[in-house]
TrEMBL record:
Name of protein: Creatininase
GO biological process, one term: riboflavin biosynthetic process
Keyword Membrane annotated: no
Species the sequence originates in: bioreactor metagenome
Keyword Zinc appears in the UniProt entry: yes
Coiled coil: none
Length: 96
């Protein structure tokens, strides 16, 4: 069950009975010249599809940005920095 596909009422009902949400974290970064920038998001999204087929756990949207400081010189790489990433993930968890 995907959080982005349910209503706030359904989310409320889910949280009355469950205390778990899966939040996958990917990144948008270079992977050499042979793989897509979104590889670290594409792979977890496929894993989440398989989990969704076998479980009723709530799945939050995949976070597509992370800390990629070492790769920031490569075009297309997006890095948030540790402080921003920590704040963002903390807020997401607090709100869920």
């Amino acid at each position: 069950m995907r959080l982005e596909n349910i209503t706030w009422v359904q989310a409320g009902e889910y949280f009355k009975q469950h205390d778990m949400v899966i939040i996958a974290i990917g990144s948008l970064e270079c992977h050499g010249t042979h793989l897509a920038l979104g590889t670290d998001t594409i792979v977890p999204n496929r894993i989440l599809e398989l989990i969704e087929e076998k479980s009723d756990v709530l799945i939050a949207p995949t976070v597509p940005y992370a800390v990629c400081d070492l790769l920031s010189d490569y075009p297309g790489t997006v890095t948030l920095g540790m402080d921003v990433f920590y704040q963002m993930m903390s807020k997401i968890c607090e709100n869920l």
